[in-house]
């Protein structure tokens, strides 16, 4: 009974809902998909997080739920689901059920059945889909809510509507996500290559801001007050310094980073040599 009271909470109307997903959730879903049983075509699980007053669903955690699926029915391990929920809430009592996820591209016939179960757990659950099959060329992520269609007092069907989805992450997480969402990866980037990609992305964003400001000044684009405030807030965070000072700070950070890479490589080499010496000593 205590667990049910913790899970149930107020949700805004589905029309005002939006979702924000943390990268940890995406990584957990992909990891569960890789570890799925051989006969399973997709992975289904529970989403945990919180809901703000403005209708933003913050998805911060997840766990997979075992299931059996056929062409016309889906069976979830409800007992496992509730046990996992109790275990998670012992560690993070503020995280409650906000919806469920499935791997695959788009919705399936069994999605409505699973959604009905989660609708009995919480009001207006979010359905998150992760395309692990790269059907669209990359691992696309979408969020849906279900709206019941009825004729008079008779329910007819459940219709899924896509809602806005925001995937925010720091640069270190974005480098890993960019690799994860591509179907083929030649090699993992080094720390320097990740830094280079982040700097190139930053320069591209600065160019986009320059172009937008020029278009507004020349009258080619209607000004947006929200975008203007965001640009102003971002510029206010930039410390005032000369280009020479900025270059010096960047080079100093780069040298510190290279020194750490050298020390870590040296440590790995010493450990490898020590391991080989210990192995040789045991043999002799």
TrEMBL record:
Component of the eukaryotic translation initiation factor 3 (eIF-3) complex, which is involved in protein synthesis of a specialized repertoire of mRNAs and, together with other initiation factors, stimulates binding of mRNA and methionyl-tRNAi to the 40S ribosome. The eIF-3 complex specifically targets and initiates translation of a subset of mRNAs involved in cell proliferation. The gene is TIF3F1. InterPro entries: eIF3f, EIF3F/CSN6-like_C, JAMM/MPN+_dom, MPN. It is found in: Cytoplasm. It comes from the Eukaryota. Residues 19-150 form the MPN domain. It comes from Acorus calamus (Sweet flag). GO terms for cellular component: eukaryotic 43S preinitiation complex; eukaryotic 48S preinitiation complex; eukaryotic translation initiation factor 3 complex, eIF3m. Signal peptide: none annotated. Transmembrane segments: none annotated. Belongs to the eIF-3 subunit F family. It holds the Pfam family JAB. GO terms for biological process: formation of cytoplasmic translation initiation complex. This is Eukaryotic translation initiation factor 3 subunit F. One of its GO terms (molecular function) is metallopeptidase activity. Keywords: Cytoplasm, Initiation factor, Protein biosynthesis. Component of the eukaryotic translation initiation factor 3 (eIF-3) complex.
């Amino acid at each position: 009974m205590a667990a049910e009271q913790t899970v149930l909470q107020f949700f805004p109307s589905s029309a005002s809902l939006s979702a924000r997903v943390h990268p940890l959730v995406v990584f957990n879903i992909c990891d569960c998909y890789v570890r799925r049983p051989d006969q399973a075509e997709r992975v289904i699980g529970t989403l945990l997080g919180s809901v703000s007053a403005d209708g933003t669903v913050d998805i911060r955690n997840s766990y997979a739920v075992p299931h059996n699926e056929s062409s016309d029915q889906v069976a979830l391990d409800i007992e496992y689901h509730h046990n996992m929920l109790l275990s998670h809430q012992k560690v993070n009592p503020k995280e409650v059920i906000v919806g469920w996820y499935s791997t695959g591209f788009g919705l399936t016939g069994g999605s409505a059945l699973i959604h009905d179960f989660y609708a009995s757990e919480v009001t207006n659950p979010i359905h998150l889909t992760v395309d692990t099959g790269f059907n669209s060329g990359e691992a696309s992520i979408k969020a849906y809510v279900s709206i019941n269609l009825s004729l008079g007092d008779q329910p007819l069907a459940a219709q899924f509507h896509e809602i806005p989805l925001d995937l925010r992450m720091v640069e270190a997480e974005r480098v890993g996500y960019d690799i994860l969402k591509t179907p083929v990866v030649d090699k993992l980037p080094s720390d320097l290559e990740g830094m280079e990609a982040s700097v190139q992305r930053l320069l591209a964003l600065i160019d986009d801001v320059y172009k937008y400001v020029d278009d507004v000044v020349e009258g080619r684009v209607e000004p947006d007050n929200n975008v203007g405030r965001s640009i102003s807030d971002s510029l206010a965070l930039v410390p005032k310094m000369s280009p020479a000072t900025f270059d010096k700070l960047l080079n100093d950070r780069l040298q510190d980073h290279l020194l750490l890479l050298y020390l870590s490589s040296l440590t790995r080499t010493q450990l490898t040599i020590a391991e080989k010496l210990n192995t040789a000593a045991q043999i002799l």
